[in-house]
Design goal:
Blueprint lengths: L7 H13 L4 H7 L8 H14 L2 E6 L2 E6 L3 H16 L4 H11 L4 H19 L3
Antiparallel strand pairs: 1-2
Helix pairs in contact: 2-3
């Protein structure tokens, strides 16, 4: 059975773990992208719920636990992005990218990587893999 759909805060936790690798709750507190002050016990409680949902796993290291994602990034982000683009951008990936470029700070390296991804996607669609 697939894990439950993550909440917005759970997505932050997963994103942080996918980016940084396994972390303790204390390490997670310092790396959460929204920068909000949260109590250790609040984050721990959310992570314990995520474990019950099948989103996280943990390993005991001495007196603490090191948490890791129990789901692949693509299995969560693919459907999440598809849903976001459908709901917010009327199903248009172009509109989503346009918004990203107009509102976000996209550096030259990211633009080059996006071009590479577009080229690879185009080749795949043309059957030229």
């Amino acid at each position: 059975m697939p894990p439950e759909k993550p909440s917005e805060f759970e997505m932050q936790i997963l994103g942080t773990l996918w980016k940084h690798g396994p972390l303790t709750v204390r390490e997670m507190l310092g790396l959460l992208p929204d920068g909000k002050k949260r109590a250790y016990t609040s984050v721990l409680s959310v992570m314990q719920v995520m474990e019950k949902k099948g989103l996280l796993g943990r390993t005991r290291e001495g007196l603490t636990d090191r948490w890791r994602p129990a789901v692949e990034e693509a299995k969560i982000l693919g459907p999440f992005m598809k849903n976001l683009i459908a709901r917010v951008f009327g199903g248009s990936a172009r509109n989503a990218l346009q918004c990203l470029f107009e509102e976000g700070e996209v550096d030259r390296a990211e633009i080059a990587e996006i071009r590479r991804l577009l080229d690879a996607h185009e080749k795949k669609q043309d059957g030229r893999e």
